[in-house]
């Protein structure tokens, strides 16, 4: 059967004009046929200005003077309470507490008895440091953490029966700082203050939180997919979570995306596993003959139903969609399914946009003629990746960057990368990853062997463990060469000028293989690298028309003409793709083509679509 989105508190999934299927009401890409209860809504709220809450045991009991709506940011919650706390923002460090009560619903047994199921609380995203108590008892995440670090991905807590009551109190402490070692993208820090291209902080309780029933022995809500299209194989990476060791069967069935479980599956495979208590990653391969490949022209998707079956026949199930595709970078071009594809890209910064607004932006970017969106050093709602899969939009995603380079920032960067990978690697739309952007958080990339070694090792790690992606070491300039080999699958450059004549000169020099004087910094650092058209060239940022003090077009018609002229120059050269900057206005950056609220275009449809040579 399909997941029914059964909800303890009757919150409905919704549809829009573009979709035949209901939108998953939970911010995750993998589905479960279980019941859940959204804990969104009004929470008690306190700003802990002097960080006294832990010393005074607020988790055991505290009088909260304010209310705040979850999900929402610390910043807006402080503003709403500013008359009482006499502050409208925070500097250097912020600590806030949230609390709410909930009545324990009847546990979903799925016909197997209470012993097979337990309750779990999941935070869609929250941070940067999060601690959670239930009825005064500190919870540990499924990953066995007392404190969860990170603010872009989900994390969960299993609730033992000894923790639970009929009426329960959930307490959350969130702490964040301006620490430049934390992955923060374009949010301000101790190094980069707000203004220009640096944005206000947006942190805290930023995505939904929900209570759900899960099986004691189950598959976790994460699936990785690697297509081996030449051999008609699909490699699935799954994660088991086991409380009761024993023999299990991992059963995979593949259907057309909109097919029913009563249909004949396209493929069925059983894999016997002896599993110990704890968590285990398991890689299995399924043959899928004559499969249709996924591409922007034909975004064909399949549906995976994965079940973990114990010796008594009890079933734990998850469901995800996936597509088969192959991406390569060689010579002049990027190849998708062995066909060269020009990347008509646009830079996208979601900022504080809601899920519904981001949806509108994605439809608008496709109307502009884009086949690729570069999601710029930010985490987004996982359902957006599903939308890109359905629309046939290629995605270029990036790790939110720290703002200085040292061992701690590199450790935080790698942890954020791994958290993001665990939740994104099922999507055929995601084709490119950037490790860093413009050497933010790696400013010593040209001179520090430790920084270079970390990036090189991470590049190799991605190729070995996540071969379904292209990897860019440092987008824009200062790509690393070791022994004459570029440690990036693409040679990317950020080129900004409002003048057409200068634009032509820059593109000519880029195509010629000039390293110096093209972008703001040298394109390659480390050992000499001789271009010789070995690696595809991507102008991964250009335009900026409308940015303060930048110059260029003065009205919409002038901007339209300039964009068209600049695009023609790009396509006249051996360049594999480009990324216009940018999709929407955000804070001081007033160079967008899409209304951030309505999704309406300020330029003609199809403007960024390249015409064939």
UniProtKB/TrEMBL annotation:
<dbReference type="GO" id="GO:0005975">
    <property type="term" value="P:carbohydrate metabolic process"/>
</dbReference>
<dbReference type="InterPro" id="IPR036156">
    <property type="entry name" value="Beta-gal/glucu_dom_sf"/>
</dbReference>
<dbReference type="Pfam" id="PF00703">
    <property type="entry name" value="Glyco_hydro_2"/>
</dbReference>
<dbReference type="GO" id="GO:0004553">
    <property type="term" value="F:hydrolase activity, hydrolyzing O-glycosyl compounds"/>
</dbReference>
<dbReference type="InterPro" id="IPR051913">
    <property type="entry name" value="GH2_Domain-Containing"/>
</dbReference>
<keyword id="KW-0326">Glycosidase</keyword>
<protein>
    <submittedName>
        <fullName>Glycoside hydrolase family 2</fullName>
    </submittedName>
</protein>
<feature type="domain" description="Glycoside hydrolase family 2 catalytic">
    <location>
        <begin position="354"/>
        <end position="447"/>
    </location>
</feature>
<feature type="domain" description="Glycoside hydrolase family 2 immunoglobulin-like beta-sandwich">
    <location>
        <begin position="234"/>
        <end position="325"/>
    </location>
</feature>
<dbReference type="InterPro" id="IPR006103">
    <property type="entry name" value="Glyco_hydro_2_cat"/>
</dbReference>
<keyword id="KW-0378">Hydrolase</keyword>
<dbReference type="InterPro" id="IPR006102">
    <property type="entry name" value="Ig-like_GH2"/>
</dbReference>
<dbReference type="InterPro" id="IPR008979">
    <property type="entry name" value="Galactose-bd-like_sf"/>
</dbReference>
<dbReference type="Pfam" id="PF02836">
    <property type="entry name" value="Glyco_hydro_2_C"/>
</dbReference>
<dbReference type="InterPro" id="IPR017853">
    <property type="entry name" value="GH"/>
</dbReference>
<dbReference type="InterPro" id="IPR013783">
    <property type="entry name" value="Ig-like_fold"/>
</dbReference>
<comment type="similarity">
    <text>Belongs to the glycosyl hydrolase 2 family.</text>
</comment>
């Amino acid at each position: 059967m399909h997941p029914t989105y059964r909800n303890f508190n009757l919150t409905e999934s919704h549809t829009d004009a573009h979709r035949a299927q209901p939108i998953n009401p939970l911010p995750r890409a993998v589905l479960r046929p279980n019941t859940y209860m959204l804990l969104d809504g009004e929470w008690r709220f306190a700003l802990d200005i002097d960080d006294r809450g832990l010393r005074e045991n607020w988790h055991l009991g505290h009088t909260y003077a304010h209310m705040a709506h979850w999900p929402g940011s610390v910043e807006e919650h402080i503003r709403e309470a500013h008359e009482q706390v006499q502050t409208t923002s925070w500097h250097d460090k912020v600590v806030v507490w949230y609390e709410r009560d909930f009545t324990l619903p009847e546990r979903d047994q799925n016909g197997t008895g209470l012993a097979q199921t337990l309750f779990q609380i999941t935070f869609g995203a929250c941070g940067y440091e999060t601690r959670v108590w239930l009825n005064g008892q500190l919870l540990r995440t499924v990953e066995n953490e007392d404190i969860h670090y990170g603010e872009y991905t989900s994390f969960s807590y299993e609730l033992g029966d000894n923790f639970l009551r009929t009426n329960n109190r959930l307490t959350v402490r969130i702490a964040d700082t301006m620490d430049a070692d934390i992955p923060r993208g374009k949010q301000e820090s101790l190094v980069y203050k707000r203004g220009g291209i640096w944005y206000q902080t947006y942190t805290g309780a930023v995505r939904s939180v929900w209570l759900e029933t899960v099986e004691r022995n189950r598959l976790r809500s994460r699936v990785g997919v690697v297509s081996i299209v030449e051999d008609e194989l699909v490699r699935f990476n799954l994660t088991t979570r086991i409380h009761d060791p024993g023999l299990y069967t991992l059963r995979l069935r593949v259907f057309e995306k909109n097919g029913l479980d009563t249909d004949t599956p396209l493929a069925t495979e059983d894999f016997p596993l002896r599993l110990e208590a704890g968590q285990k990653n398991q890689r299995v391969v399924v043959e899928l003959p004559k499969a249709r490949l996924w591409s922007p022209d034909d975004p064909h998707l399949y549906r995976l139903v994965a079940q973990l079956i114990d010796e008594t026949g009890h079933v734990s199930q998850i469901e995800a969609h996936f597509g088969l595709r192959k991406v390569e970078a060689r010579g002049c071009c990027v190849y998708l399914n062995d066909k060269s594809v020009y990347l008509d890209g646009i830079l996208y910064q979601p900022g504080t946009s809601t899920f519904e607004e981001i949806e509108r932006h994605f439809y608008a970017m496709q109307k502009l003629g884009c086949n690729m969106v570069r999601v710029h050093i930010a985490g987004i709602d996982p359902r957006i990746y599903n939308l890109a899969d359905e629309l046939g939009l290629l995605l270029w995603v990036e790790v939110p960057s720290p703002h200085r380079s040292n061992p701690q920032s590199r450790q935080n960067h790698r942890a954020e990368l791994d958290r993001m990978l665990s939740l994104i690697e099922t999507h055929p739309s995601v084709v490119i990853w950037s490790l860093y952007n413009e050497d933010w958080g790696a400013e010593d990339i040209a001179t520090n062997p430790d920084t270079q070694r970390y990036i090189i090792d991470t590049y190799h790690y991605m190729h070995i463990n996540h071969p379904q992606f292209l990897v860019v070491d440092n987008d824009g300039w200062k790509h690393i060469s070791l022994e004459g080999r570029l440690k990036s699958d693409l040679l990317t450059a950020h080129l900004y000028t409002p003048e057409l004549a200068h634009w032509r000169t820059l593109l000519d020099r880029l195509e010629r293989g000039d390293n110096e004087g093209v972008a703001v910094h040298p394109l390659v650092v480390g050992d000499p690298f001789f271009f010789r058209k070995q690696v595809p060239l991507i102008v991964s940022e250009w335009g900026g028309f409308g940015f303060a003090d930048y110059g260029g077009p003065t009205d919409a018609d002038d901007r339209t003409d300039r964009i068209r002229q600049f695009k023609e120059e790009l396509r006249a050269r051996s360049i594999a793709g480009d990324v216009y900057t940018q999709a929407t206005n955000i804070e001081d950056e007033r160079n967008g083509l899409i209304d951030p609220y309505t999704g309406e275009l300020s330029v003609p449809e199809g403007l960024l679509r390249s015409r064939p040579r």
